[in-house]
UniProtKB/TrEMBL annotation:
Source species: Streptosporangium brasiliense
InterPro entries linked: FAD/NAD-bd_sf, FAD/NAD-binding_dom, FAD/NAD-linked_Rdtase_dimer_sf, Pyr_nuc-diS_OxRdtase, Pyr_nucl-diS_OxRdtase_dimer
Top-tier EC class: oxidoreductase
Cofactor: FAD
Name the record gives this protein: Dihydrolipoamide dehydrogenase
SUPFAM superfamilies, alphabetized: FAD/NAD(P)-binding domain, FAD/NAD-linked reductases, dimerisation (C-terminal) domain
Length: 464
């Protein structure tokens, strides 16, 4: 029986463990925080729970557009809709623990051994966990990553915080300054603005989310500004200092921004230091990320890696697929290498931003030839009924064959809507095939099939 030891119990680790157990391997997972790892306990699950709460509150605040009004609320709060932060954060933490417990139960049911502790490679076939030494035929490293800390902005857990510390606050921040306008910064900034905080978003670039679709980022920034958020573009933070009753953020150009709290969202660093990787022959890049190939192999024989510690698209779905691929390859099963072009991603802002396949910037740069269509969400009947005015559906296809190359959806529930485009990209469907697929009417998904119809090319020459 093949013995597999997995260091890390996040998506890359526990999904690999489940596949390995189902294929008959003897599996041990070494995890120091709990089943699900940081993804479930402190990062993805808690943040999306908080965001779900903020979206619900924003819907209540926007209900007046549909003729629904709230009265009798406390003075100073729009419509009397307030966020009870102790209760909100309690639910966030309890839900994370419940999800972790569900994962633990699933692992136990499949016969996976879970060892609580920090794992370390002694050599490519030996893992040390506390005072226990575990021999393995295959090792999978899935240790994740940690919020990057700037020396000039050391978190104190009270006023200067990482996102992992936000759920310990007893009150809603009066004025939250978010440093970093990437995906994490944009998500938390939008969530706390909807929950009732005054928010200042400090972006070092000329726009929010510079690595995402430019049209999508423009829509979101417009929504944020309309909701009262102060978005400071081209404003790189130099330092963050605590004051008597708040924080002051100093920018490189000498300007300052003052608030009651500061949330630092300036990237992630891999959890790869001090666990014996290089000593075991595992190659790391300059940023400390584990270098892997398309089937999750590292440079050390028998050692694989998955998840954020590899730096390959820091998404839970990618981590899970990397872990599964590692197991399939290690056990000699049929396996397809990881195809990043088919990875769907979502930004859990309000509205959400989902994308899959090629990016428009690649098309504009001449790297890929494609036809593009963009439909505003405001023309969709269901969007009108629900009062959704912001967003769009964008679809890309090859000019002659009509094969769908990718797309972007900016809408409430974009994370669900993108699946249709993901299937089309994965299966190399054409716009004709997608256009001939029934969509419910009225439904937001109708904009996807409508976009496909607009990309269809006539088979008969004009004038005949």
């Amino acid at each position: 029986m093949t013995r597999i030891v997995i260091i890390g119990g996040g998506p890359g680790g526990y999904e690999a463990a489940l596949v390995a157990a189902q294929l008959g391997a003897q599996v041990t997972v070494v995890e120091q925080d709990g089943p699900g790892g940081a993804c479930v306990l402190t990062d993805c699950v808690p943040s999306k729970t908080l965001i779900a709460t903020s979206v619900r509150k924003q819907a209540l605040l926007d209900a007046s557009m549909l003729g629904v009004h709230f009265t009798g609320g406390p003075d100073g709060d729009v419509g009397g809709v307030i966020a009870d932060m102790p209760l909100v954060n309690k639910r966030v933490k309890e839900l994370a623990q419940a999800q972790s417990a569900d994962i633990a139960a699933r692992l136990a049911a499949e016969g996976v051994e879970v060892v609580r502790g920090a794992g370390r490679l002694v050599d490519p076939q030996v893992v040390r966990a506390g005072d226990r030494t575990i021999r393995a035929d295959v090792v999978i490293v899935a240790t994740g990553a940690t919020p990057r800390i700037l020396p000039s902005a050391e978190p104190d857990g009270e006023r200067i915080l990482t996102w992992r510390q936000m759920y310990d606050l007893e009150e809603l921040p009066e004025h939250l300054i978010v440093v970093g306008s990437g995906v994490t910064g944009a998500e938390f900034a939008g969530a706390y603005r909807s929950l009732g905080s005054e928010v200042t978003l400090v972006s070092s670039r000329d726009r929010m989310m510079p690595n995402e679709d430019a049209d999508a980022a423009e829509v979101l920034e417009e929504v944020y500004r309309r909701r009262g958020m102060n978005v400071m573009g081209r404003s790189r933070a130099e330092s963050v200092k605590r004051t008597a009753d708040g924080v002051v953020v100093t920018l490189e150009d000498g300007r300052t921004a003052e608030g009651t709290h500061c949330l630092m969202t300036v990237g992630m660093i891999p959890n790869t230091a001090g666990i014996g990787l290089q000593e075991a022959g595992v190659t790391l890049d300059r940023g400390g990320f584990i270098q892997v190939d398309k089937v999750s192999r590292t440079s050390a024989p028998g050692v694989y890696a998955a998840g954020d510690c590899t730096g390959v698209l820091m998404l839970a779905s990618v981590a899970a697929m990397q872990g599964r691929i590692a197991v399939w390859h290690a056990l000699g099963e049929a396996v397809q290498p990881l195809r990043l072009a088919t990875v769907a991603s979502n930004i859990f802002t309000d509205p959400e931003i989902a994308a899959v396949g090629v990016a428009q910037k690649a098309i504009e740069a001449g790297e890929i030839e494609a036809n593009v269509v963009k439909l505003p969400l405001a023309t969709n009947a269901r969007a009108k009924m629900q009062g959704f005015n912001d967003g769009f559906v964008k679809l890309f296809c090859r000019p002659h064959t009509g094969i769908i190359l990718g797309g972007v959806v900016v809408a409430p529930g974009a994370s669900e809507l993108i699946l249709a485009v993901s299937v089309a990209v994965q299966q190399r469907l054409t716009v004709d095939q997608l256009a001939h697929t029934f969509a419910v009417y009225p439904a937001l998904s109708g904009s996807i099939t409508e976009a496909a119809r607009r990309l269809m090319q006539p088979t008969t020459p004009s004038g005949i």
